[in-house]
Amino acid sequence: MNNNPAEASIGRASGSREDMVSTEAAFRRLKPERGVSGDFIFKGVTVLFAFSILVIIAIMVVEMVDQSLPTIRKFGWSFVKGQEWDPVQGSFGALPYIWGSVVSSILALLLATPLSVGTAIFVTEIAPKKFGAVVAALVELLASIPSVIYGLWGVLVMAPWLQQTVQPYLIDHFGFLPFFEGAPYGVSMLAAVFILMIMVVPIITSIAKEVLLAVPQSQREAAIALGATRWEMIRMAVLPYGRSGILGAVILGLGRAIGETMAVTMVIGNTPQISLSLLSPAYTMPSVIANEFAEASSKLHGAALMEIGLILLGVTLVINVLARLLLWGMTRRARGGAR
Amino acid sequence: MRMPSLRSLKSALMTFFMAAATVAVLLPLVIIFAHIVKMGFSSLSPDFFIHIPKPTGESGGGMANGMAGSCILIVLASGLGIPVGVFGAMYLVEYGGSRISNVIRFAADVLSGVPSIITGMVAYTLMVVPMKSFSALAGAVALALIMIPIVLRTTEEQLKMVPDTLREASLALGVPLWRTSLRVTLRSATKGVMTGILLAIARISGETAPLLFTALGNQFWSKKLTEPIAAMPLQIFNFAISPYEDWHRLAWAGALVLVTLMFALSLTARYLGRNKYQS
């Protein structure tokens, strides 16, 4: 019966006479001094676990720096500028991987941002409430699909489709541009950009939706009262208010895209080269770690992969700090405005 | 009859673009989902659930060891990650001064944005190197590192929603803070906390990258937690990039099972997540 102690104790406190007696009894029972040591232990455990978050981040940074010292010492800055990656000869340069990560993520973001923000606006400002809620729930549900499954679809369905349909078309019509020269391989930078776009869209959409929902209703009403059309209301009242929050959502999406491993590894072709062409295979930082780390041939090879991981960690930490600051500022302002 | 003004035309046009963007967002996701369902159902068979993968070239086989392995990894990671996340959240709610709590909250948000392959590398240096072997334990540590910030943040949100009056009533009766926290605050928020835990489990059950060099994968059954262990996402990855049609079919079947599990967890979480203290 006593399923909910919270309700039970309230019932006792304000209940009938018998209840008062039992409350006193309970009071006596619960008062003993071991309560003090119980609180002490409780505080100790919770402090330990709460601060474990900070400890984990510290361990991550320290371990990764420590493990990549051999290559940091040996190559210095030439590690990020070098283009040669030869585990047998023991020479390591990470530029092709950095290039691949940066290009694939930024292009994916350029495609995903208008789509995501448009969807977020549609869900919050345009669609009827119930319909919008269904679309939002669908987007969130699809955001939970694991990346290995996007990769499975990417490599078995999308890459062959690109190879047979999209890439020959691009070569025929735009082949004179440096971006579309070469043979249609299927697995390519283009495939990575598409799969990343599909994967970050739900993330940006759902955060941008939260941001737009935090825009006070009074802002919209004011714009409408001044005679604005729906689009003018969105452009002049809603978007400026949510600007920093939407920027935060996009930056968070960038962090996700740069760190995305499995799906990209499966469709990008895993060839370390710097090419302007979107049709040629490439390689990214997480992909080379995924492919080579378990079988690193030498200590130096392992350290080189660790240093790539360290660069990745540094970049994503900076990106996430920036995004969270923008998002936190936004929600705090919205809360302040509602008061 | 008035001609629609340029402004309202523009508004209608932009409305159309927003709707088109929504369709463009949902379309690929629906296509992928439909494909998984189609390929998955045609490849699923009872064998899938009771056999381990057959050697290259033989047809048939299943992912029984991967499913068992994933379950073991999830249980171990939950055992490590849930207590840390839940008790950590209790600190933020019960003791945390606003500055320290904000720092920890911020750090948890940042930590949850660290790529999962990095947690795999860290678990490798912390577990695999000292133990000199890839193991289920190392995989569980990697997954727990991903779980902790998620559980901590969602639990904290839920605990904060419990009305102060409940807590004060209990404290006024002389119940020590630790008992109040565990038996009043936490139990009042049980459903919400469960939501966060389910979402965290859904997240880690599909994680592949952190397992690549911790759990490593195994073609057979593993007998000890200190041995490499099979996991479904790893098997899907290996089968998907293999050149064999049979293995592709197994990968599709695995994908269907994983997505079904994921949706079931998400929907249960959503159902539980309707908080009783919200209006």
Structure explained in plain terms:
The complex is a heterodimer of chains A (339) and B (279). Chain A contains 13 helices and two strands. By secondary structure, chain A is mainly alpha-helical. In chain A, strand 1 and strand 2 (91-92) form a beta hairpin. Chain A starts with a helix and ends with a helix. The mean pLDDT of chain B is 90. Chain B has 279 residues and is an all-alpha fold. In chain B, 73% of the residues lie in helices and 0% in strands. In chain B, helix 5 (116-131) packs across helix 6 (136-161). The chains are: A mainly alpha (339), B mainly alpha (279). At the A-B interface, helix 1, helix 2, helix 3, helix 5 and helix 6 of A face helix 1, helix 3, helix 4, helix 5 and helix 6 of B.
Major sheet characteristics of chain B: none
Strand content of chain B: under 5%
Helix content of chain A: over 70%
What radius of gyration of chain A results from the CA coordinates? 27 Å
**What is the ordering of alpha helices and beta strands of chain B?**
HHHHHHHHHHH
Q: What structural class do helix, strand and pairing data of chain B support? A: mainly alpha
Distance between the termini of chain B: 46 Å
Structural class of chain A, by secondary structure, is: mainly alpha
Mean pLDDT of chain B: 90
Give the CA-based shape of chain B: globular
Mean pLDDT of chain A: 87
**SSE string of chain A:** HHHHEEHHHHHHHHH
- Order of strands across the biggest sheet of chain A? 1-2
- Count of beta strands of chain B: 0
Rg calc of chain B: 24 Å
Low-confidence stretches of chain A: 1-21
β-strand percent of chain A reads: under 5%
Largest interface: A-B, 102 and 100 residues
What spatial form of chain A do the alpha-carbon principal axes imply?
Answer: globular
Summarize the structure.
The complex is a heterodimer of chains A (339) and B (279). Chain A has 339 residues and is mainly α.
